[in-house]
Each structure stands twice: as C-alpha cells, then as structure tokens.
Design a protein that fits this description.
- The structure holds 2 protein chains of 2 kinds.
- Chain A is mainly alpha-helical.
- Helices cover 81% and strands 0% of the residues of chain A.
- The longest helix of chain A has 32 residues.
- Chain B is α/β, with parallel strands linked by helices.
- Chain B is elongated.
- The chains are: A mainly alpha, B alpha/beta.
- At the A-B interface, α1 and α5 of A face α2 and α3 of B.
- The structure holds adenosine-5'-diphosphate and magnesium ion.
- The site of magnesium ion has 5 residues of chain B, from α1.
C-alpha cells in the first residue's frame, strides 16, 4: 500500500508536469466551455421561461452542465497519453521495475481528476461572472468540484481501459466520439428533465453524465442535498466499476505481451 | 556463479508467430554476454522474457538466482532493462527521468539526488540535465537510457540493440562507454546486437541466434578459431551451384557455401589456394568477377552454423538452404 501511494504520487507529478509544460492545452480545453457559456447562455436565455425549468436563469442552469461536460471530455482523452507511453516503450521500461502495477494506471486517473478540478474551478468562476448565482454557497462550490473530479476519474479510468485493450489512438478517438456527445445530450446538461422525451429520460437515469449534472445542479441550488449525496454515491460506484475495468484491461495487456 | 540461466526457452505470440523456438545459454556473473542475430531472430523476445515483460510459452529462466515466472518481482528488483525502443519520457528532462526511475526502482530517498547527479556526470549529460529529452540527440538519449538502467545499481543489465540506429561515430563512443561500464561496475551485461563487429568488440562470450534458436555459443575468438583457414569469397557470373560443386571436389577446400552471386570457400591457406580456385572455375567455364580473401570472422562463424550470410543491413538472407558441405574443421 505504501509503495502504491508513493509510486502513484511520483507518477502523478510526472503527468502534471507534462500538462503544465503545454499550458496552451489547458487554454484550448477551456475555449469550448467558455464559448458555450457565453453563446448558449445568450442564445437560449429565454428557454427557462418554458415550464419545467423552475425559477432559474439559463446561465445558472447551464453552468453545472458545462462543468460536467468539460469534465467528461477533459478526462475521456486520458487514454491518449497512455497509448503514447505504450508506443514509446515508457510503459515497458516501468513494467520492468518493481513499480506498483496499479499505480501506473491510478496516477493517470488521478491526473485526470486533478486536471478536471482545475478546469471546473475556472468554468464555475466564469459562470458566476456571467451572472449565475450560487445559493448553495461555498459548500456547493466545493461539492461541484468534487462531483466533476469523480466524473473525471470515472471516465479517465474507462478511457485508459479502452487504450490498454485497443492500443490504437484511432480506436480510442472513435470510442470517445461514439460515447461522448450522446452521453451529454442524453442528460439534463442543456435541457430540463421534464421537457425531455420520456425515452431519453429513462436513459438519462443510468447515464453517469446525468448523475453528475443533476448532482452539480442540486448542489448549486443548495436545496436537495440528499439528491446530491445519492448521485455522488452513484458516481463513486461508477469510478469503482471503471477502475476495475481498467485494471482488468491492464492484466489483459500484460498477458498478451 | 551464473547470473543468467536460460533453459530451452520458447515463445509463441498470440498471433501464432514462433518468435523463439529453443534458446538456452548461461551467463556468468560479471560477464558481457552477446546475443547475436539478424532482425527477427528473436533477440528482443528473449530479452523481454528475461525482463518479466513477456511470459514464456515454455522452458525456464533464472536471473540473479530468481525465476522469471515464479519470482518476477525478485527479478525486477535485480535487473536494469534498456529496451530497443528507447523508453525515456520525451516530455521530461534528463534529470526528471532519472529521478522518477530511481523512485520506481526503490533507491533509498536520501540517495536519489546524489546518485542521479553523479550518473548524469558519468554519462556526460550534466549540461543537458535540465533540458527536455525532446531536444536530445540520438546518442544523448541512448546514454540517458543506459543511465536509467543503472540507477539502482542492478546485478544484471539488459541492453537490447543499444547501438542500432546510431551513426558510426556515436556508436564507437557508446562502445567506449560500455567498456567503461564493464571496468568500473560489477555487473553482468546481456547485450543483443545484429552487428558482428559489436559482439566481437564488446562481448566475452556470444550466442548466435537464428530464427528463434541458439545455434552456437562460445568465446568469439574460440568460435573463430574453430573455423579453420581463410575464407575466399568468389563473385561469379551466374551458375553458382555448378561452381560450388566444382570447388567441392578440390582437395584443399574445407567447406563451400553458395551465397547469392558468390561462392564462399573455406581453405587452409588462402594465398596459395586462390589461383587454383579461379583456374578450376574458369576451366568449368564460370567467369570470376572478384575475389576477396579474409581471416575467419564472426560472419564466417555465422555462415558456418546457419548456412546463410549476415547481410550488411543485418537481415538474414531469405534462402533457407542448408550448408552445402558441412565438412567443417571438426571433421578433420
Ligand atoms: N508482440 C509481438 N507479437 C507478435 N509477433 C511478434 C511480436 N514481437 C515480435 N514478433 C515477431 O517475432 C519475431 C522475433 O522478433 P524479435 O524478438 O523482435 O526479433 P529481434 O529482436 O531479433 O529482431 C519476428 O518475426 C517478429 O515479427
Ligand atoms: Mg529486436
């Protein structure tokens, strides 16, 4: 356990350093959410006048959705770095050391969570600047960051698992494109649940992105902390499930060599 | 004491490729041992099994007294592995790479900074230590690779084709480095190469590996000494097999192997035999374009045991013909 933690932290430092060396990447990943918040926030401002949205502004409704969506796409690409390591022999070099096997993947998942945390912080602040209010207060603020990090960890583990099984960037890109947008639109990120066709509502119930959006939105409003708890528990389960998937994929990868 | 014992190791990949069919050799502690063979012979596969990266399909291997399968963790603690494909993190600096490697290799925390610093100096990368590896030349990267394999002072170091892809100058500089490692450190080195010269220069003993099996193992000079006499390579205008049969009938010829456009004849005394060989061929109506005479090299050892020549790019020739005449020195 001690080696697991210490190896994970050292590897995490490596990943964070790599990210910080390409700061443009952080900016790029923030361009899209910022555009969404400003553009959609303006464009669909009057959507909230429809019944079902309740007493809110669209920017307030949209901000948690955009946070979660950014968390999804920020972490889903996590497997790309792993594929680079596989291709460049970095993984082999580490596997020939006594390094804790689990740490090699856990560090990537943790890195995705940390990255998502920073992105969410920026988006959330931007949303507040654009006029969203935060009735839930500082507790809500922290809860949303936690929710985004959980979601990021879950999708990062999934992405790393896929990377280990396919070992091809093209395949990973295809998988992300196949899942990413549908998961977003089959959630309440952009539209209130009561206004969705009922079949989408059913799918949304088992969609981790939707759990994240609902938890973040409830936290923001600060009224339904029970719901926040349930959705966060569901997300934690999702993280466990995808982590198990990633660790099994890693075993398959090592056995196939 | 034996540092590496490999016993009838074999490996069939999932896609059905029999990469290693029968590899056995032993390496004594402190030795530089060379695994010499052309591309695709199974060198990397063998090393990967010895580095616990790939599970053998059969046979067994012990490294530093530990079994690669039943005590993989024990093996990992005692080896340094420098793969054919570099394996350094391009987005990190030399120092960061070494430091992380030292952590993963369980170097005591208080020793890490000092050891990394002295290794960087030892490989001449102190100046470049805090630059991104992206900006390193091929030779610098290779030296960093090797330093990473040494950071925990392993008992056994694997170097998989350490000089492949380097220009000749960098290669000889690296040879000097490797000789230095041998002098200054108590460690066993298993090196793979497809350069005969490299095996000859650096290795105490070599095993020649061809199509997944070891064909001969020994000290390079002994192997060469077993191949008696001189090699005469006759470049002829076609009809090589006919020419080869002509030469085979000659008293002074020990062995004849056809090799593309050439016939390679091993003779007791090259200088006196050459005129006779040419005359014999021309009498049979086979023109000789060029003749080269050489002392037996590892190339001839390779040719003798595999029946095909090492070509310049390291690829074994694809003709699967057996040695035409195995009347080797051992029969005389
Ligand atoms: N991961 C792999 N999966 C399937 N076949 C492989 C794999 N790695 C190597 N091979 C095949 O095994 C054979 C031996 O390869 P290798 O051990 O790399 O030889 P060498 O290092 O001597 O060039 C080659 O035919 C190669 O194509
Ligand atoms: Mg190789």
């Amino acid at each position: 356990m001690r080696t697991f933690i210490s190896d994970t932290l050292h590897l995490l430092v490596r990943h964070l350093r790599t990210t910080l060396r390409i700061p443009i990447w952080i900016v790029v990943t923030l361009v899209q959410p910022v555009i969404w918040l400003t553009l959609y926030g303006q464009l669909f401002r009057r959507v909230v006048e429809l019944p079902g949205f309740g007493d809110t502004t669209y920017i307030e409704f949209l901000t948690p959705g955009v946070v979660i969506m950014t968390a999804l796409f920020g972490s889903a690409w996590s497997g790309m770095g792993l594929i680079e390591d596989l291709n460049e022999g970095v993984m082999d070099r580490m596997l020939a050391t006594p390094a804790h096997r689990g740490a090699l993947i856990a560090a990537r998942v943790l890195h995705a969570a940390v990255t998502v945390l920073v992105q969410s912080l920026i988006i959330l602040l931007f949303g507040l600047v654009l006029g969203a209010s935060l009735p839930g207060g500082i507790g809500a603020f922290l809860a949303i960051l936690g929710i985004a990090a959980l979601l990021g960890a879950g999708f990062s583990a999934f992405s790393n698992g896929v990377a280990l099984l396919t070992r091809r960037e093209e395949t990973l890109i295809a998988v992300i494109n196949f899942f990413g947008m549908p998961l977003t639109f089959l959630s309440t990120a952009f539209m209130a649940a009561t206004l969705m066709p009922s079949w989408i509502g059913v799918i949304a119930k088992v969609n981790p992105v939707n759990w994240g959006v609902n938890a973040a939105r409830d936290a923001m409003a600060g009224t339904n902390w029970g719901g926040v708890g349930v959705n966060m528990a569901l997300l934690a389960g999702f993280v466990l499930l995808t982590s198990f998937f990633a660790s099994q994929a890693f075993k398959v990868y090592r056995r196939a060599a | 004491m034996n540092a590496i014992v490999v016993d009838h190791l074999c490996k069939t990949y999932r896609n059905g490729v029999d990469a290693v069919t029968d590899v056995s050799f032993t390496v004594s502690a402190g030795e530089i041992f060379g695994l010499l063979g052309p591309n695709g012979a199974g060198k990397s596969t063998t090393v990967r099994m010895l580095a616990t990266l790939s599970v053998p399909s059969g046979g067994s291997a012990q490294v530093a007294g530990r079994d690669v399968e039943s005590d993989a963790a024990g093996v990992r603690r005692r080896i340094g592995y420098v793969a054919q494909a570099s394996g350094v993190d391009r987005h990190g600096t030399g120092r960061e790479n070494l430091t992380l490697q030292a952590h993963l290799e369980r170097v005591p925390k208080r020793d890490i900074a000092g050891r990394v610093g002295s290794l960087l100096e030892w490989i001449g990368l102190t100046e470049a230590a805090d630059r991104l590896v992206n900006t390193y030349s091929g030779g610098m990267k290779r030296r960093l690779d090797i330093a990473m394999g040494l950071v925990h002072e392993p008992e056994v170091l694997y170097l998989d084709e350490p000089t492949t892809g380097l220009d000749p100058e960098t290669r000889s500089a690296l040879w000097a480095d490797l000789k230095r490692i041998r002098q200054e450190r108590k460690l066993t080195v298993l090196l793979t190469t497809h350069y005969l010269e490299e095996a000859d220069q650096l290795c105490d003993r070599v095993a020649i590996i061809d199509r997944g099996r070891v064909v001969i193992e020994g000290v390079p000079s002994d192997l060469k000494a077993k191949i008696e006499g001189d090699s005469v390579t006759l470049n002829v205008e076609g009809r090589t097999s006919e020419g080869a049969s002509v030469l085979r009938t000659m008293e002074e010829v020990l062995e004849v192997i056809e090799d593309g456009d050439s016939i390679v004849a091993r003779v007791a005394h090259g200088a006196t035999a050459v005129p006779a060989l040419i005359t014999a061929l021309e009498r049979a109506g086979i023109g000789v374009n060029a003749v080269t005479l050489s002392r037996p090299s590892l190339d001839d050892v390779y040719l003798h045991y595999t029946g095909h020549r090492f070509t310049s790019n390291g690829m074994a020739e694809q003709n699967h013909q057996a040695p035409a005449n195995r009347r080797g020195g051992d029969q005389r």
